[in-house]
Write a structure and sequence with these properties.
Elements lengths: L2 E8 L6 H16 L5 E3 L27 H13 L2 E9 L5 E8 L5 E6 L24 E4 L2 E5 L8 H9 L4 E5 L3 E3 L8 H23 L2 E5 L2 E4 L2 E4 L3 E3 L5 E4 L5 E8 L1 H9 L18
Parallel strand pairs: 1-2, 2-3, 7-8, 8-10
Antiparallel strand pairs: 1-15, 3-4, 4-5, 6-7, 9-12, 10-13, 11-12, 13-14
Helix pairs in contact: 1-2
């Protein structure tokens, strides 16, 4: 399939798992009416962004893969005949906790189970307190619409992750995200400049992954203020040349974008970055 319609949902937490489940279910149904065959949700979309603080009570919020919440979205994907990227706070059978993204196909089956590999620990983003680093490496889901890779938020800063997925045959990399400005960090006269620099860096790094690997990239962020974090939205889709095809602002939004996978081959014939790699000289990267 060369051309497909995709949608992302840039949402705002409604304050509880049940409220978010209802909110995003309605938005998924709305997005599906556009003819989109792939719909992507933000990181930890069912929850307030609880890693703002360290609190052991928040471990009680985690869900298992056989939970009623996951089953609800499996049924919804089957009903609407869409592929869903579903980021969840996972409690595993061996009592570990992961920042996870499931890929569901049109039959509601889980065809990819990715666990976030790179875990940050910064003011307002205390994820190492909650999440075990991923143990499933970088996965490529072979869907009916193409080969899909999912990386989560902080993973977006690491070029190795995008390259490994590309070598695995991925055509589209999605980045479900919960990123924003820490109001306690961004104070003073330089606040606006700092915010612009951070946002521009975030956009630029993912556009660079698209260019370096000749793939499509979709970044999906949340919006709204939670405690002292203001999530900056700005979700976008870019093509293998790094051109932004659609982009949101800082409010709740659903964007639909048609992507044409034939552009991947065309772009790679012009920019032969994958062909011209010198893998014989890259061993030092494994030692440092």
């Amino acid at each position: 399939m060369s051309k497909i319609k995709t949608s992302y949902i840039q949402g705002k937490s409604q304050g509880s798992i049940q409220a978010n489940l209802e909110y995003y279910s309605l938005k998924i149904e709305e997005a599906s009416k556009s003819g989109s065959k792939l719909i992507i949700l933000p990181e930890l979309f069912l929850w307030d962004y609880f890693p703002i603080t360290e609190n052991k009570k928040h471990f009680d919020l985690a869900i298992s893969l056989d939970s009623k919440e996951v089953k609800h979205f499996q049924n919804l994907a089957k009903k609407l005949k869409v592929n869903l990227v579903l980021p969840v706070f996972e409690k595993s059978v061996d009592e570990n906790f992961f920042n996870t993204a499931l890929t569901l196909n049109e039959s509601g089956e889980i065809i990819s189970h990715y666990r976030k590999m790179h875990i940050p620990y910064d003011p307002g983003f205390y994820e190492k307190f909650y999440f075990t680093p991923g143990d499933k490496s970088f996965l490529v889901a072979d869907t009916s619409i193409g080969k899909l890779g999912v990386l989560i938020c902080f993973d977006q800063w690491f070029p190795e992750a995008a390259r490994i997925m590309t070598l695995g045959g991925v055509q589209l990399i999605t980045y479900p995200t919960a990123i924003g400005w820490d109001e306690q960090e961004c104070r003073g006269l330089s606040q606006q400049a700092l915010r612009e620099d951070e946002l521009n860096a975030w956009i630029t790094i993912m556009r660079a992954h698209a260019i370096a690997n000749g793939v499509y990239v979709i970044a999906v962020n949340r919006v709204g203020k939670e405690d002292h974090l203001t999530f900056w939205g700005n979700s976008f889709v870019c093509d293998p040349l790094g051109r932004i095809l659609v982009q949101s602002g800082t409010e709740e939004d659903i964007q639909v974008c048609e992507i044409d996978f034939s552009k991947i081959e065309t772009t790679r014939k012009i920019w032969t970055f994958l062909r011209d790699r010198r893998v014989d000289s890259y061993e030092p990267i494994l030692k440092n």
